[in-house]
Amino acid sequence: MILVNLGKLNTVLIYLLMLGDGIDQYVITIPVPKRIIGESFSVVSIYTQKEYQIILIGVNSKRDTTFHFLLSPGKQYKLQECDELVFIAKDEEDVMNFYHQVS
What is the pTM of this model? Predict the structure, then answer.
């Protein structure tokens, strides 16, 4: 038996549609900028897609000494100082522009 969280599946399908063929796409990880610590994952995800055309797909959340990848944790998840943001983008420069604007 395979259990699928349909909310997560819908999110993944939306990301795939936005990516097109996926050619020239990169996974880029950055620390959470200080100005958005405490913000909702969903709010930041919508903002980065709209303003920078980069897709925030999840968070590497540090627990104890290890990171756990959270795929699209949703609006209830508040970004923490020890988190890392995981993006899919066509260019690292787009992600770094976002990072420098909100740092």
Answer: 0.78
